[in-house]
Amino acid sequence: MGVVARWIQDRLPIDQKKLRELTNEPVPNHLKRWWFCLGGTPAYLFVIQIITGILLAFYYEPSPKTAYESVSYITEEAAFGWYIRSMHKWAATFMVAAVILHQMRVYFTGAYRKPREINWMVGMLLLICTLTIGFTGYSLVYEQLSFWGASVGANIADSVPLVGPLIKNMMLAGESYNERTLPRFFIMHAAILPITMIVLLFIHITIIRMQGVTEFGATEEEEKKTFNFFPDHLYTEIIMGLSLMIILSALATILPAEMGPRADPNTTPEVIKPEWFFYVMFRWLKLFSGTVAVISTGFIVFVMFMWPFIDAAIRKYTRAKEASVWIGILGVLAIIALTVWEAAVAH
Amino acid sequence: MTGRNDQDRPDPGTGVDERRGFLGRFSGLAMSVGLIGGYGAFGVIAARYLYPASGDPKSWFFVAVLKEFKPGTSILYRAPSGAKINITRRGPGENLADFSALSSVCPHLGCQVHWEAVNNRYFCPCHNGAFDPEGVATAGPPKEAGQRLSSFPLKIEKGVLYIEVSTLELAELEQADEAPTGPGQDPCLFQRYPAREV
Fold first, then answer.
1. What are the distances in angstroms from CA A174 to CA A66, A171, A179, A182?
2. Quick check: B4 contacting A, CB < 8 Å?
Protein backbone atom coordinates (compact mmCIF):
# COMPACT_ATOMS: atom_id res chain seq x y z
CA MET A 1 0.00 0.00 0.00
CA GLY A 2 1.35 3.39 -0.95
CA VAL A 3 1.90 6.19 1.53
CA VAL A 4 -1.08 8.14 0.26
CA ALA A 5 -3.33 5.07 0.28
CA ARG A 6 -2.31 4.28 3.85
CA TRP A 7 -2.83 7.90 4.93
CA ILE A 8 -6.37 7.76 3.58
CA GLN A 9 -6.95 4.25 4.94
CA ASP A 10 -5.97 5.39 8.44
CA ARG A 11 -8.58 8.12 8.34
CA LEU A 12 -11.31 6.54 6.24
CA PRO A 13 -11.22 2.83 6.99
CA ILE A 14 -12.94 1.66 3.81
CA ASP A 15 -12.99 -2.07 3.36
CA GLN A 16 -11.30 -2.59 -0.02
CA LYS A 17 -12.91 -5.98 -0.45
CA LYS A 18 -16.41 -4.67 0.16
CA LEU A 19 -15.78 -1.71 -2.12
CA ARG A 20 -14.73 -4.08 -4.89
CA GLU A 21 -17.79 -6.21 -4.28
CA LEU A 22 -19.96 -3.12 -4.42
CA THR A 23 -18.51 -1.77 -7.65
CA ASN A 24 -17.68 -5.02 -9.36
CA GLU A 25 -21.18 -6.37 -9.53
CA PRO A 26 -21.31 -8.91 -12.31
CA VAL A 27 -23.77 -7.91 -15.01
CA PRO A 28 -25.31 -10.28 -17.55
CA ASN A 29 -23.53 -10.62 -20.85
CA HIS A 30 -26.40 -9.13 -22.86
CA LEU A 31 -25.41 -5.72 -21.44
CA LYS A 32 -22.59 -5.76 -23.95
CA ARG A 33 -25.21 -4.96 -26.56
CA TRP A 34 -25.56 -1.23 -27.00
CA TRP A 35 -29.32 -0.95 -26.74
CA PHE A 36 -29.13 -2.24 -23.19
CA CYS A 37 -27.19 0.88 -22.26
CA LEU A 38 -30.23 3.08 -22.85
CA GLY A 39 -30.88 3.32 -19.12
CA GLY A 40 -27.48 4.84 -18.47
CA THR A 41 -27.96 7.34 -21.29
CA PRO A 42 -30.73 9.45 -19.71
CA ALA A 43 -28.84 9.34 -16.41
CA TYR A 44 -25.75 10.71 -18.16
CA LEU A 45 -27.83 13.35 -19.97
CA PHE A 46 -29.42 14.27 -16.64
CA VAL A 47 -25.96 15.07 -15.27
CA ILE A 48 -25.28 17.24 -18.34
CA GLN A 49 -28.60 19.01 -17.70
CA ILE A 50 -27.70 19.68 -14.08
CA ILE A 51 -24.29 21.12 -15.00
CA THR A 52 -25.46 23.24 -17.96
CA GLY A 53 -28.61 24.21 -16.01
CA ILE A 54 -26.58 25.53 -13.08
CA LEU A 55 -24.45 27.47 -15.55
CA LEU A 56 -27.54 28.98 -17.21
CA ALA A 57 -29.00 29.94 -13.82
CA PHE A 58 -25.99 32.21 -13.26
CA TYR A 59 -27.44 34.67 -15.79
CA TYR A 60 -31.12 33.78 -16.01
CA GLU A 61 -33.64 36.09 -14.30
CA PRO A 62 -37.14 34.61 -13.84
CA SER A 63 -39.41 37.60 -14.29
CA PRO A 64 -41.51 38.65 -17.30
CA LYS A 65 -39.56 41.92 -17.44
CA THR A 66 -36.13 40.30 -17.52
CA ALA A 67 -36.47 36.64 -18.56
CA TYR A 68 -36.34 37.13 -22.32
CA GLU A 69 -33.55 39.70 -22.07
CA SER A 70 -31.48 37.48 -19.80
CA VAL A 71 -31.85 34.46 -22.10
CA SER A 72 -30.97 36.71 -25.01
CA TYR A 73 -27.91 37.91 -23.06
CA ILE A 74 -26.87 34.28 -22.53
CA THR A 75 -27.43 33.44 -26.20
CA GLU A 76 -25.90 36.50 -27.79
CA GLU A 77 -23.47 38.15 -25.39
CA ALA A 78 -22.09 35.86 -22.67
CA ALA A 79 -18.96 34.01 -23.77
CA PHE A 80 -19.99 30.52 -24.97
CA GLY A 81 -23.48 31.20 -23.64
CA TRP A 82 -24.96 30.01 -26.95
CA TYR A 83 -23.07 26.73 -26.50
CA ILE A 84 -24.22 26.14 -22.91
CA ARG A 85 -27.84 26.95 -23.79
CA SER A 86 -27.81 24.85 -26.96
CA MET A 87 -26.27 21.92 -25.07
CA HIS A 88 -29.03 22.23 -22.47
CA LYS A 89 -31.71 22.26 -25.15
CA TRP A 90 -30.30 19.38 -27.21
CA ALA A 91 -29.54 17.27 -24.14
CA ALA A 92 -33.17 17.82 -23.07
CA THR A 93 -34.41 16.55 -26.43
CA PHE A 94 -32.07 13.57 -26.25
CA MET A 95 -33.04 12.87 -22.67
CA VAL A 96 -36.74 12.66 -23.50
CA ALA A 97 -35.92 10.43 -26.49
CA ALA A 98 -33.60 8.22 -24.42
CA VAL A 99 -36.14 7.86 -21.62
CA ILE A 100 -38.80 6.81 -24.14
CA LEU A 101 -36.44 4.36 -25.86
CA HIS A 102 -35.34 2.96 -22.50
CA GLN A 103 -38.95 2.47 -21.49
CA MET A 104 -39.72 0.77 -24.81
CA ARG A 105 -36.75 -1.55 -24.34
CA VAL A 106 -37.91 -2.45 -20.83
CA TYR A 107 -41.46 -2.92 -22.08
CA PHE A 108 -40.74 -5.12 -25.08
CA THR A 109 -38.29 -7.32 -23.19
CA GLY A 110 -40.87 -7.75 -20.42
CA ALA A 111 -38.34 -6.53 -17.86
CA TYR A 112 -41.13 -4.92 -15.81
CA ARG A 113 -42.60 -8.27 -14.76
CA LYS A 114 -42.46 -9.69 -11.28
CA PRO A 115 -40.48 -8.82 -9.16
CA ARG A 116 -39.73 -5.56 -10.98
CA GLU A 117 -43.20 -3.94 -10.93
CA ILE A 118 -42.23 -1.27 -8.41
CA ASN A 119 -39.23 -0.19 -10.44
CA TRP A 120 -41.43 0.15 -13.53
CA MET A 121 -43.67 2.49 -11.53
CA VAL A 122 -40.65 4.49 -10.34
CA GLY A 123 -39.62 4.67 -13.99
CA MET A 124 -43.08 5.95 -14.95
CA LEU A 125 -42.71 8.70 -12.33
CA LEU A 126 -39.33 9.56 -13.85
CA LEU A 127 -40.95 9.74 -17.31
CA ILE A 128 -43.62 12.13 -16.02
CA CYS A 129 -40.95 14.23 -14.26
CA THR A 130 -38.87 14.33 -17.46
CA LEU A 131 -41.81 15.55 -19.55
CA THR A 132 -42.82 18.11 -16.90
CA ILE A 133 -39.29 19.42 -16.58
CA GLY A 134 -39.19 19.75 -20.37
CA PHE A 135 -42.45 21.70 -20.32
CA THR A 136 -41.39 24.04 -17.51
CA GLY A 137 -38.02 24.43 -19.23
CA TYR A 138 -39.23 25.93 -22.47
CA SER A 139 -41.71 28.07 -20.54
CA LEU A 140 -38.78 29.93 -18.96
CA VAL A 141 -37.45 31.58 -22.12
CA TYR A 142 -40.50 33.87 -22.24
CA GLU A 143 -40.77 33.71 -25.99
CA GLN A 144 -44.16 33.29 -27.67
CA LEU A 145 -44.03 29.49 -27.36
CA SER A 146 -43.16 29.77 -23.65
CA PHE A 147 -46.06 32.05 -22.87
CA TRP A 148 -48.74 30.30 -24.91
CA GLY A 149 -47.41 26.86 -23.97
CA ALA A 150 -47.76 27.73 -20.29
CA SER A 151 -51.20 29.27 -20.83
CA VAL A 152 -52.49 26.30 -22.82
CA GLY A 153 -50.94 23.90 -20.30
CA ALA A 154 -52.65 25.68 -17.43
CA ASN A 155 -55.99 25.61 -19.23
CA ILE A 156 -55.61 21.90 -19.94
CA ALA A 157 -55.07 21.43 -16.21
CA ASP A 158 -58.15 23.60 -15.64
CA SER A 159 -60.36 21.12 -17.48
CA VAL A 160 -59.51 18.33 -15.04
CA PRO A 161 -62.72 17.70 -13.10
CA LEU A 162 -62.87 18.93 -9.49
CA VAL A 163 -59.23 19.85 -8.87
CA GLY A 164 -58.61 21.53 -12.25
CA PRO A 165 -59.11 25.16 -11.19
CA LEU A 166 -56.92 24.61 -8.14
CA ILE A 167 -54.10 23.13 -10.25
CA LYS A 168 -54.34 26.03 -12.70
CA ASN A 169 -54.25 28.54 -9.88
CA MET A 170 -51.24 26.89 -8.29
CA MET A 171 -49.46 26.68 -11.64
CA LEU A 172 -49.94 30.29 -12.66
CA ALA A 173 -49.98 31.87 -9.20
CA GLY A 174 -53.34 33.37 -10.11
CA GLU A 175 -56.30 33.15 -12.47
CA SER A 176 -54.13 33.89 -15.48
CA TYR A 177 -50.50 34.35 -16.43
CA ASN A 178 -49.04 37.16 -14.31
CA GLU A 179 -45.70 38.47 -13.08
CA ARG A 180 -45.54 35.86 -10.33
CA THR A 181 -45.95 32.95 -12.76
CA LEU A 182 -42.39 32.66 -14.06
CA PRO A 183 -40.71 32.26 -10.64
CA ARG A 184 -42.99 29.25 -10.06
CA PHE A 185 -41.98 27.62 -13.31
CA PHE A 186 -38.35 28.36 -12.52
CA ILE A 187 -38.45 26.82 -9.04
CA MET A 188 -40.27 23.78 -10.44
CA HIS A 189 -37.75 23.45 -13.26
CA ALA A 190 -34.56 24.18 -11.35
CA ALA A 191 -35.23 22.91 -7.84
CA ILE A 192 -38.30 20.79 -7.13
CA LEU A 193 -38.29 18.54 -10.21
CA PRO A 194 -34.50 17.96 -10.32
CA ILE A 195 -34.43 17.04 -6.62
CA THR A 196 -37.44 14.75 -7.07
CA MET A 197 -35.70 13.13 -10.02
CA ILE A 198 -32.45 12.64 -8.10
CA VAL A 199 -34.39 10.90 -5.32
CA LEU A 200 -36.34 8.76 -7.83
CA LEU A 201 -33.15 7.91 -9.75
CA PHE A 202 -31.50 6.86 -6.51
CA ILE A 203 -34.46 4.56 -5.75
CA HIS A 204 -34.51 3.33 -9.37
CA ILE A 205 -30.83 2.36 -9.32
CA THR A 206 -30.96 0.96 -5.77
CA ILE A 207 -33.79 -1.37 -6.80
CA ILE A 208 -31.79 -2.45 -9.87
CA ARG A 209 -28.83 -3.23 -7.63
CA MET A 210 -31.04 -5.13 -5.19
CA GLN A 211 -32.75 -7.21 -7.86
CA GLY A 212 -29.89 -7.41 -10.30
CA VAL A 213 -30.18 -6.63 -13.98
CA THR A 214 -32.86 -8.71 -15.69
CA GLU A 215 -31.44 -11.94 -17.09
CA PHE A 216 -32.97 -13.28 -20.23
CA GLY A 217 -33.11 -16.94 -21.12
CA ALA A 218 -31.12 -17.80 -18.02
CA THR A 219 -31.32 -21.46 -18.91
CA GLU A 220 -29.13 -21.04 -21.95
CA GLU A 221 -25.47 -21.51 -21.25
CA GLU A 222 -24.42 -18.42 -23.19
CA GLU A 223 -26.70 -16.06 -21.34
CA LYS A 224 -25.48 -17.17 -17.94
CA LYS A 225 -22.13 -15.56 -18.61
CA THR A 226 -21.47 -12.32 -16.80
CA PHE A 227 -18.83 -9.62 -16.87
CA ASN A 228 -17.79 -7.05 -14.32
CA PHE A 229 -19.60 -3.77 -14.00
CA PHE A 230 -16.33 -2.13 -13.06
CA PRO A 231 -14.43 -1.47 -15.15
CA ASP A 232 -15.85 -3.24 -18.21
CA HIS A 233 -19.39 -1.90 -18.26
CA LEU A 234 -18.20 1.48 -17.02
CA TYR A 235 -16.01 1.70 -20.13
CA THR A 236 -19.08 1.19 -22.28
CA GLU A 237 -20.82 4.00 -20.41
CA ILE A 238 -17.76 6.28 -20.72
CA ILE A 239 -17.72 5.71 -24.48
CA MET A 240 -21.46 6.43 -24.57
CA GLY A 241 -20.87 9.63 -22.62
CA LEU A 242 -18.08 10.91 -24.83
CA SER A 243 -20.00 10.05 -27.99
CA LEU A 244 -23.01 11.92 -26.64
CA MET A 245 -20.86 14.96 -25.84
CA ILE A 246 -19.54 14.94 -29.41
CA ILE A 247 -23.02 14.61 -30.94
CA LEU A 248 -24.52 17.25 -28.63
CA SER A 249 -21.63 19.66 -29.24
CA ALA A 250 -21.98 19.17 -32.99
CA LEU A 251 -25.74 19.77 -32.85
CA ALA A 252 -25.28 22.78 -30.56
CA THR A 253 -22.88 24.25 -33.11
CA ILE A 254 -24.78 23.39 -36.27
CA LEU A 255 -28.32 23.95 -34.96
CA PRO A 256 -27.95 26.27 -31.95
CA ALA A 257 -30.89 27.26 -29.77
CA GLU A 258 -32.31 30.51 -31.11
CA MET A 259 -34.48 33.26 -29.71
CA GLY A 260 -38.11 33.09 -30.81
CA PRO A 261 -40.23 36.24 -30.80
CA ARG A 262 -40.72 37.74 -27.34
CA ALA A 263 -43.91 36.70 -25.54
CA ASP A 264 -46.88 38.88 -26.43
CA PRO A 265 -49.88 38.19 -24.19
CA ASN A 266 -52.16 39.96 -26.71
CA THR A 267 -51.26 38.00 -29.84
CA THR A 268 -51.42 34.25 -30.21
CA PRO A 269 -49.19 33.21 -33.12
CA GLU A 270 -50.95 31.82 -36.18
CA VAL A 271 -49.11 28.50 -35.87
CA ILE A 272 -48.32 27.44 -32.33
CA LYS A 273 -46.88 24.08 -31.39
CA PRO A 274 -45.31 22.67 -28.26
CA GLU A 275 -42.01 20.77 -28.25
CA TRP A 276 -42.11 17.55 -30.26
CA PHE A 277 -42.60 15.28 -27.25
CA PHE A 278 -45.98 16.89 -26.59
CA TYR A 279 -47.22 16.49 -30.18
CA VAL A 280 -49.11 13.34 -29.19
CA MET A 281 -50.94 15.13 -26.40
CA PHE A 282 -51.52 18.20 -28.58
CA ARG A 283 -53.09 16.17 -31.40
CA TRP A 284 -55.14 14.23 -28.88
CA LEU A 285 -56.51 17.51 -27.53
CA LYS A 286 -57.55 18.54 -31.03
CA LEU A 287 -59.33 15.21 -31.59
CA PHE A 288 -61.41 15.29 -28.43
CA SER A 289 -63.02 17.99 -26.36
CA GLY A 290 -61.09 19.33 -23.35
CA THR A 291 -62.40 17.22 -20.49
CA VAL A 292 -62.66 14.00 -22.54
CA ALA A 293 -59.10 14.43 -23.80
CA VAL A 294 -57.76 15.13 -20.32
CA ILE A 295 -59.60 12.24 -18.67
CA SER A 296 -58.62 9.80 -21.43
CA THR A 297 -54.98 10.91 -21.17
CA GLY A 298 -55.11 10.42 -17.42
CA PHE A 299 -56.58 6.96 -17.97
CA ILE A 300 -53.84 6.01 -20.45
CA VAL A 301 -51.13 7.19 -18.04
CA PHE A 302 -52.80 5.22 -15.25
CA VAL A 303 -52.88 2.07 -17.41
CA MET A 304 -49.19 2.55 -18.27
CA PHE A 305 -48.45 3.01 -14.58
CA MET A 306 -50.27 -0.15 -13.55
CA TRP A 307 -49.19 -2.16 -16.62
CA PRO A 308 -47.11 -4.79 -14.77
CA PHE A 309 -50.21 -5.84 -12.84
CA ILE A 310 -52.56 -5.61 -15.82
CA ASP A 311 -50.09 -7.67 -17.86
CA ALA A 312 -49.82 -10.23 -15.07
CA ALA A 313 -53.61 -10.51 -14.98
CA ILE A 314 -53.80 -10.96 -18.76
CA ARG A 315 -51.13 -13.66 -18.64
CA LYS A 316 -52.84 -15.41 -15.75
CA TYR A 317 -56.45 -15.36 -16.89
CA THR A 318 -56.19 -15.48 -20.68
CA ARG A 319 -54.25 -17.52 -23.20
CA ALA A 320 -52.69 -14.42 -24.75
CA LYS A 321 -49.29 -14.79 -23.10
CA GLU A 322 -47.62 -12.27 -25.38
CA ALA A 323 -50.50 -9.82 -25.62
CA SER A 324 -48.24 -7.11 -24.18
CA VAL A 325 -46.07 -7.17 -27.31
CA TRP A 326 -49.04 -6.54 -29.61
CA ILE A 327 -50.52 -3.90 -27.33
CA GLY A 328 -47.08 -2.29 -27.17
CA ILE A 329 -46.70 -2.27 -30.95
CA LEU A 330 -50.16 -0.71 -31.29
CA GLY A 331 -49.30 1.91 -28.69
CA VAL A 332 -46.00 2.82 -30.32
CA LEU A 333 -47.64 3.01 -33.76
CA ALA A 334 -50.38 5.26 -32.35
CA ILE A 335 -47.80 7.55 -30.71
CA ILE A 336 -45.76 7.75 -33.92
CA ALA A 337 -48.88 8.33 -36.02
CA LEU A 338 -50.18 11.15 -33.80
CA THR A 339 -46.73 12.75 -33.61
CA VAL A 340 -46.20 12.62 -37.37
CA TRP A 341 -49.74 13.88 -37.98
CA GLU A 342 -49.17 16.86 -35.67
CA ALA A 343 -45.77 17.56 -37.21
CA ALA A 344 -47.09 17.40 -40.77
CA VAL A 345 -49.97 19.87 -40.53
CA ALA A 346 -50.08 23.51 -39.50
CA HIS A 347 -53.34 23.29 -37.56
CA MET B 1 -6.64 1.72 -15.70
CA THR B 2 -3.95 -0.55 -17.06
CA GLY B 3 -3.64 -2.40 -13.76
CA ARG B 4 -7.09 -3.83 -13.95
CA ASN B 5 -8.01 -7.26 -12.87
CA ASP B 6 -7.28 -9.62 -15.70
CA GLN B 7 -6.85 -12.80 -13.71
CA ASP B 8 -10.14 -14.32 -14.85
CA ARG B 9 -9.02 -14.34 -18.44
CA PRO B 10 -7.31 -17.38 -19.94
CA ASP B 11 -3.58 -16.95 -20.24
CA PRO B 12 -2.65 -16.87 -23.91
CA GLY B 13 0.89 -17.16 -25.20
CA THR B 14 3.42 -14.71 -23.86
CA GLY B 15 3.72 -12.82 -27.16
CA VAL B 16 0.00 -12.17 -27.23
CA ASP B 17 0.14 -11.15 -23.59
CA GLU B 18 2.86 -8.60 -24.28
CA ARG B 19 0.97 -7.17 -27.18
CA ARG B 20 -2.20 -7.10 -25.13
CA GLY B 21 -0.34 -5.34 -22.32
CA PHE B 22 0.91 -2.70 -24.74
CA LEU B 23 -2.49 -2.26 -26.32
CA GLY B 24 -4.07 -2.07 -22.88
CA ARG B 25 -1.66 0.61 -21.75
CA PHE B 26 -2.01 2.51 -25.01
CA SER B 27 -5.79 2.44 -25.04
CA GLY B 28 -5.83 3.38 -21.36
CA LEU B 29 -3.62 6.37 -22.10
CA ALA B 30 -5.65 7.34 -25.17
CA MET B 31 -8.85 7.09 -23.17
CA SER B 32 -7.49 9.20 -20.34
CA VAL B 33 -6.26 11.84 -22.78
CA GLY B 34 -9.64 11.80 -24.52
CA LEU B 35 -11.55 12.14 -21.27
CA ILE B 36 -9.35 14.89 -19.88
CA GLY B 37 -9.29 16.69 -23.23
CA GLY B 38 -13.03 16.41 -23.79
CA TYR B 39 -14.32 17.26 -20.35
CA GLY B 40 -11.40 19.62 -19.74
CA ALA B 41 -12.44 21.61 -22.81
CA PHE B 42 -15.97 21.77 -21.46
CA GLY B 43 -14.60 22.95 -18.11
CA VAL B 44 -12.63 25.73 -19.84
CA ILE B 45 -15.74 26.78 -21.77
CA ALA B 46 -17.78 26.81 -18.55
CA ALA B 47 -15.14 28.88 -16.76
CA ARG B 48 -14.96 31.35 -19.64
CA TYR B 49 -18.77 31.57 -19.65
CA LEU B 50 -18.83 32.38 -15.94
CA TYR B 51 -16.03 34.95 -16.12
CA PRO B 52 -17.84 38.30 -16.29
CA ALA B 53 -17.63 40.43 -19.40
CA SER B 54 -15.07 43.17 -18.93
CA GLY B 55 -16.26 46.57 -17.72
CA ASP B 56 -19.66 48.10 -17.25
CA PRO B 57 -21.29 49.77 -20.21
CA LYS B 58 -20.57 53.48 -19.85
CA SER B 59 -22.04 56.59 -21.34
CA TRP B 60 -21.80 60.37 -21.14
CA PHE B 61 -24.57 62.05 -19.17
CA PHE B 62 -25.64 65.67 -18.89
CA VAL B 63 -24.62 67.43 -15.65
CA ALA B 64 -25.20 71.15 -15.99
CA VAL B 65 -25.12 74.19 -18.23
CA LEU B 66 -22.00 76.07 -17.21
CA LYS B 67 -23.84 79.40 -17.02
CA GLU B 68 -26.04 77.99 -14.27
CA PHE B 69 -23.23 76.33 -12.34
CA LYS B 70 -21.74 78.94 -9.98
CA PRO B 71 -18.05 78.72 -9.05
CA GLY B 72 -17.48 77.42 -5.55
CA THR B 73 -20.68 75.37 -5.52
CA SER B 74 -21.27 71.61 -5.69
CA ILE B 75 -23.87 69.43 -7.26
CA LEU B 76 -24.82 66.05 -5.88
CA TYR B 77 -25.15 64.00 -9.06
CA ARG B 78 -27.04 60.71 -9.09
CA ALA B 79 -25.83 58.18 -11.62
CA PRO B 80 -28.25 55.55 -13.00
CA SER B 81 -26.68 53.07 -10.60
CA GLY B 82 -27.81 55.33 -7.77
CA ALA B 83 -24.20 56.26 -6.95
CA LYS B 84 -23.78 59.78 -5.55
CA ILE B 85 -21.12 61.86 -7.22
CA ASN B 86 -20.02 65.25 -5.90
CA ILE B 87 -19.35 67.55 -8.81
CA THR B 88 -17.69 70.81 -7.76
CA ARG B 89 -16.88 73.91 -9.76
CA ARG B 90 -13.69 75.23 -8.22
CA GLY B 91 -13.17 78.35 -10.30
CA PRO B 92 -14.79 80.62 -12.84
CA GLY B 93 -12.80 79.13 -15.76
CA GLU B 94 -14.39 76.85 -18.31
CA ASN B 95 -11.58 74.30 -18.38
CA LEU B 96 -11.82 70.78 -17.00
CA ALA B 97 -9.28 71.77 -14.33
CA ASP B 98 -11.95 73.99 -12.80
CA PHE B 99 -14.22 71.04 -12.14
CA SER B 100 -14.00 67.87 -10.10
CA ALA B 101 -16.30 64.87 -9.91
CA LEU B 102 -15.55 62.92 -6.77
CA SER B 103 -16.75 59.39 -6.31
CA SER B 104 -18.56 58.67 -3.07
CA VAL B 105 -16.93 55.23 -2.90
CA CYS B 106 -14.31 55.03 -0.16
CA PRO B 107 -11.00 53.78 -1.64
CA HIS B 108 -10.42 51.72 1.51
CA LEU B 109 -13.03 48.97 1.24
CA GLY B 110 -15.74 50.39 -0.98
CA CYS B 111 -18.27 51.83 1.46
CA GLN B 112 -20.20 55.00 0.63
CA VAL B 113 -18.82 58.26 2.05
CA HIS B 114 -21.12 61.16 2.83
CA TRP B 115 -20.55 64.90 3.14
CA GLU B 116 -20.45 66.33 6.64
CA ALA B 117 -21.05 70.04 6.28
CA VAL B 118 -20.21 70.76 9.96
CA ASN B 119 -16.77 69.22 9.68
CA ASN B 120 -16.24 70.26 6.06
CA ARG B 121 -15.23 66.74 5.12
CA TYR B 122 -16.40 63.50 3.47
CA PHE B 123 -16.77 60.79 6.05
CA CYS B 124 -16.79 56.99 5.66
CA PRO B 125 -18.74 55.30 8.47
CA CYS B 126 -17.17 51.88 7.91
CA HIS B 127 -13.69 52.57 9.33
CA ASN B 128 -13.81 56.30 10.16
CA GLY B 129 -12.04 57.43 7.00
CA ALA B 130 -12.25 61.14 6.26
CA PHE B 131 -11.50 63.21 3.15
CA ASP B 132 -11.16 66.95 2.57
CA PRO B 133 -13.33 68.71 -0.03
CA GLU B 134 -10.69 67.95 -2.68
CA GLY B 135 -11.01 64.23 -1.95
CA VAL B 136 -7.63 63.81 -0.22
CA ALA B 137 -7.74 61.49 2.80
CA THR B 138 -7.28 63.28 6.11
CA ALA B 139 -7.96 60.53 8.64
CA GLY B 140 -8.43 56.82 9.12
CA PRO B 141 -7.14 53.92 6.99
CA PRO B 142 -7.33 55.85 3.69
CA LYS B 143 -4.94 58.48 5.12
CA GLU B 144 -2.48 55.83 6.27
CA ALA B 145 -2.54 54.37 2.78
CA GLY B 146 -2.24 57.81 1.21
CA GLN B 147 -5.43 57.37 -0.80
CA ARG B 148 -7.94 59.81 -2.20
CA LEU B 149 -11.47 59.62 -3.50
CA SER B 150 -11.40 58.60 -7.15
CA SER B 151 -12.85 60.92 -9.73
CA PHE B 152 -15.05 60.47 -12.78
CA PRO B 153 -14.20 61.71 -16.27
CA LEU B 154 -15.85 65.00 -17.19
CA LYS B 155 -16.07 66.85 -20.49
CA ILE B 156 -17.29 70.26 -21.61
CA GLU B 157 -19.01 70.72 -24.94
CA LYS B 158 -20.57 73.99 -26.06
CA GLY B 159 -20.90 75.29 -22.55
CA VAL B 160 -22.42 72.11 -21.15
CA LEU B 161 -20.78 69.82 -18.59
CA TYR B 162 -21.03 66.04 -19.07
CA ILE B 163 -19.94 63.10 -16.93
CA GLU B 164 -19.12 59.54 -17.94
CA VAL B 165 -20.72 56.94 -15.67
CA SER B 166 -21.95 53.36 -15.84
CA THR B 167 -25.35 52.95 -17.42
CA LEU B 168 -26.23 50.01 -15.18
CA GLU B 169 -29.36 50.66 -13.21
CA LEU B 170 -28.93 49.37 -9.70
CA ALA B 171 -31.17 51.64 -7.65
CA GLU B 172 -34.37 53.57 -7.96
CA LEU B 173 -33.57 57.25 -8.21
CA GLU B 174 -34.82 59.19 -5.23
CA GLN B 175 -37.40 61.90 -5.75
CA ALA B 176 -38.28 60.37 -9.06
CA ASP B 177 -41.84 61.59 -8.68
CA GLU B 178 -40.74 65.21 -8.48
CA ALA B 179 -39.97 66.99 -11.70
CA PRO B 180 -36.27 67.69 -11.34
CA THR B 181 -34.99 71.13 -12.27
CA GLY B 182 -31.74 73.00 -12.17
CA PRO B 183 -28.14 71.91 -12.63
CA GLY B 184 -27.34 68.26 -12.15
CA GLN B 185 -30.82 67.16 -13.11
CA ASP B 186 -31.13 65.90 -16.61
CA PRO B 187 -34.73 66.16 -17.80
CA CYS B 188 -34.02 63.41 -20.35
CA LEU B 189 -32.70 61.15 -17.62
CA PHE B 190 -35.79 61.89 -15.63
CA GLN B 191 -37.96 60.62 -18.45
CA ARG B 192 -36.26 57.28 -18.18
CA TYR B 193 -37.44 57.03 -14.62
CA PRO B 194 -41.10 58.02 -14.73
CA ALA B 195 -42.96 58.36 -11.50
CA ARG B 196 -44.19 54.98 -10.40
CA GLU B 197 -47.86 54.32 -10.20
CA VAL B 198 -48.77 53.57 -6.64
1. 20, 8, 10, 12
2. yes
